[in-house]
Amino acid sequence: MKSEHSMPTVTSASTRLIKKQKHNPERKGRYIVTTCALLIIIATAAIMIFLTQKGLQSFIGNGLSPLEFLTSANWHPISSGNGEPSYGALSFIFGSFAVTILAAIIAAPLGIGAAIFMTEIAPSWGKKVFQPIIELLVGIPSVVYGFIGLSVLVPFLRSSFGGLGFGLLAGMIVLAIMILPTVTSIATDTLHSLPKGLRDASAAIGATRWQTISRILIPAAMPGLLTAVVLGMARAFGEALAVQMVIGNATSIPNSLTEPAATLTTIITLNMGHTTFGSLENNVLWSLALILLLMSLLFIILIRFLSSRRKYE
Amino acid sequence: MNSRITNRIATGVFFACAALITLVLAGLLGYILYHGIAIINWDFLTSPSSSFRAGGGIGPQLFNSFYILLITMIITVPLGLGGGIYMAEYAKPGKLTSIIRTSIEVLASLPSIVLGMFGLLVFVNLTGWGYSILSGALTLTIFNLPIMVRECEDAIRAVPRDQREAGLALGTTHWHTIKKVLVPSAFPTILSGAILASGRVFGEAAALLFTAGLTTPRLDFGNWNPFSPDSPLNIFRPAETLAVHIWAVNSEGLIPDARAVADGASAVLIISVLLFNLIARALGRFIHKRLTASK
């Protein structure tokens, strides 16, 4: 009797615990965070599609020859009396690669050397002192690097090497300093991740510290160290304002390090605001941006390849 | 004997590398602060800039920098947190997750000038907003988002397993555990990550050149109606930030005291970034102490 009486008030557990299926916060939360994640894909896809479409316009819409664009160093966007305007971007492509590689040549040994100092030579206090230094260097905005380059480095180079002071050399030094923290911090992480057994084993057979570093640790850490350098190069390749302030912005291929030059980013920075949107003059700048985009994808592929070769994580 | 000498030399070289980096940093900071502090005074910080006469300040630029930073963070933090929660809690190993990871990697490695051009194409031209604070903030959001997502994901993953399991053991749902247990305990790490990211946004210039513009209209700091064109709060007005201003006075400017203005502005920029850095560090250390009871 008693049980029969209470029967109608009993509801199944599922309806009691989940009151309204429509306003299920569990599902709502999931939808919200999934949307955020999908937004990242959408943003990336939008960047790819818009920039590719806009970057190809000068070839498809304006009929510029891609071959001439990539292989000629003849950049005369405004027809200068004696003929058609020409858009050869080779000197900018050359400039970008030149400053990037030169900056990496300076920054790689310095950064890796500092990383070795931090992890192998003074592991107790090196990291404590250097971690903040590296973080501060990362934090300095690129325009400030450019401004110091402009007001200190350029006059110094002018007085010691002659010429204008603006040029590849100034660009390469500014970029080298800018990518030093990137190279150092990733190289440090890589060296840290090497198993301690490697060092102990090497010390046990009587190797000096330098022998351990040069014959055991550096080879073992090689893919990671290269990743550090490539990441630094990717940053150098895409840097715009700091380079623009010191490189001199000449539109021809320089003959020496002290001559002014230009890079893909500097020419975009300079001309984007002064050209009419939709004109060929403006469209070629988007083609230059497309090269930057493709290069940064190439750097990612390179980094993925290198990290697949890492032995110690 | 020979190998021992080589060892000594090598040690010296490594020390020299580290010392050189320290010297470079000290030189940079010393130079900027030494030259800049002399310029900075209340008048310089608050008076409007001049486009061709000497004696201009950086008032509007300073305001713009903080305002764009604020708007950027208002958009970035929720999106980044959402993305981070998804990646840490919901993402299953598979195609979608690897596409998201690749997207984050691509976004993080794009040069900021390329992002600026995308902003110009989409936020400035396509939407018809023109050079505006909103265009700049949205561009900086894309610039900042990958870092914020990673930061949030790591912070949520770093929450001790016990806490997550204790939440679930109480019978709460997954989302409720995320909301009431994981996010609150990851919050301090996320906050210090967000402050560090703020430093990066604050100093960014290349992405803003073609999105927030190189000019600032005459602002009336008494007018706080966000829809009025001369109100500082209007998000549809062009806004030159401090970092952009440093670039502009050096490369396109006509003012005779460009050097002094840039000195002062650089020092303000560096001091702000240093402050962001110090606050984030202090916060991180404080929280580490609270959570682990260690020194």
From TrEMBL, chain B:
Keyword annotations of the record: Cell membrane, Membrane, Transmembrane, Transmembrane helix, Transport
Gene3D superfamilies (UniProt xref): MetI-like
Segments forming domain ABC transmembrane type-1: 62-280
SUPFAM superfamilies associated with the record: MetI-like
Pfam families named among the record's database cross-references: BPD_transp_1 (PF00528)
InterPro entries noted in UniProt: MetI-like, MetI-like_sf, Phosphate_PstA
Protein name: Phosphate transport system permease protein PstA
Gene name tied to this protein: pstA
